[in-house]
Amino acid sequence: MTAIDDFLGQKKLAQNSLSAYRYDLEQFRQLVEGEIEPAKLKAYQQFLTDLKPTAQKRKISAVNQFLYYLYETGQIKQFHKLSLPSQVRLVSPHFTSKTEVLDLSILWQKSERPVGQLFALLIWTMGLQPSEILQLEAKHLNLDFQILTVRRGQDKRVLKIPQKLLPYLTELPEVGFLFAKGGKPYSRQWLFNQLRLYLETIGMAHLTAQKLREQYILSQLASDVSLEKVAKNLGLKSAVTLEKYVK
């Protein structure tokens, strides 16, 4: 049972209303990547500004009820109430309205910071999230068949490794987690620091993990990969959160 299941379980709703609540809350969970923090919530509010007022009102109501439930049950320490001020468009680095495919060929050039470079390439060419990268184990990587198995909870997906990326994966550990110390994966902050330091060395400090992942989405769509296929590659349950990229 997830927090969403528990929340919905204590509400007496008709089946149609229950389905609508679940859809809105699962979408919210995907967009904030399971993290209830100010930056992620602002990103979610940014996403809502592209929707019709009726949809905005419905989603805000469902999410605020859910956030209050999490607060009441002690699952979050602070209650974050969301709102959408009229005629105000929130700006967030996590979700941008710019839909330009950037020339990131510089990421292939030899670097003094190979670890940070590999993180950038995994996000840009395969759409991986930092949390997914840190959970990768040697057994998930098969260079002979050029496939990488990515696990998130009970879900898993098998991705084709781009040919050009293979040489960057040959020096990884043969057992255990690919990025670890003392047998345990490094922290997300460590990964972000490695990525930031690498991007600074190539003059691309304005990029972030989220923007690199967005470039993966844009480049895939520009190559005529279907929205549904991109969503599947990203591990999303639906393509609804990607629709803004084809408007």
Write the layout of secondary structure elements.
Elements: H1 3-9, H2 15-31, H3 38-48, H4 53-72, H5 114-126, H6 130-134, E1 141-142, E2 147-152, E3 155-160, E4 180-181, E5 184-185, H7 188-201, H8 209-222, H9 227-234
Antiparallel strand pairs: 1-2, 2-3, 4-5
Helix pairs in contact: 2-4, 5-7, 5-8
Structure at a glance:
By secondary structure, the chain is mainly alpha-helical.
Give a verbal description of the structure:
This protein is mainly alpha-helical and 247 residues long. 44% of the residues lie in helices and 7% in strands. The chain has nine helices and five strands. It has helices spanning 3-9, 15-31, 38-48, 53-72, 114-126, 130-134, 188-201, 209-222, 227-234; strands at residues 141-142, 147-152, 155-160, 180-181, 184-185. The strands form two sheets. Strands 1-2-3 form a three-stranded antiparallel sheet, with no helix packed on it. Helix 2 crosses helix 4 (53-72), helix 5 (114-126) crosses helix 7 (188-201) and helix 5 crosses helix 8 (209-222). The longest helix is centred in the N-terminal third of the chain and has 20 residues, at 53-72. The chain is globular. The protein starts with a helix and ends in a 13-residue tail after the last helix.
Structure characteristics:
single chain, 247 residues, mainly alpha, two-stranded antiparallel ribbon, globular
Q: How far is the N terminus from the C terminus? A: 35 Å
Shape, principal axes of CA atoms:
globular
Give the structural class: mainly alpha
Query: Main sheet?
Result: 3 strands, antiparallel
Share in helix: 40-55%
DSSP helical segment count: 9
Instruction: Extract low-pLDDT stretches.
Output: 85-97
H/E series, N to C? Answer: HHHHHHEEEEEHHH
Strand order of the largest sheet: 1-2-3
User: Mind telling me the C-alpha Rg?
Assistant: 19 Å
Mean pLDDT: 87
Number of strands: 5
Beta content = 5-15%
